[in-house]
């Protein structure tokens, strides 16, 4: 996934924090799925994070 610099440049401090948090949890959810760790929220979180970044 490519990082969108236009978001980071125009966002406020709280917006940047939310962006980093969403990106972190998306990576965490994908890793849970890859490792087969039961994480019922993983698929939903990955989908929501993906939609939020579009």
Description of the molecule:
- The chain is mainly alpha-helical and 54 residues long.
- It has one domain.
- Helix content is 74%, strand content 0%.
- The protein is built from three helices and no strands.
- The model has no long low-confidence stretch (mean pLDDT 68).
Question: Which tags fit this structure?
Answer:
Reverse transcriptase domain-containing protein; about 55 residues; elongated; 3 helices; mainly alpha
User: What is the tally of helical segments?
Assistant: 3
- Termini separation comes to 11 Å
Helix content: over 70%
Strand content: under 5%
Instruction: Report the radius of gyration as a whole number of Å.
Output: 12 Å
Task: Please report the total strand number as a whole number.
Answer: 0
Order of helices and strands: HHH
Low-pLDDT stretches are none
Shape: elongated
**Structural class assignment:** mainly alpha
Q: How many strands, what sense, and barrel or not for the largest sheet?
A: none
Mean pLDDT metric: 68
What is the number of independent domains? 1
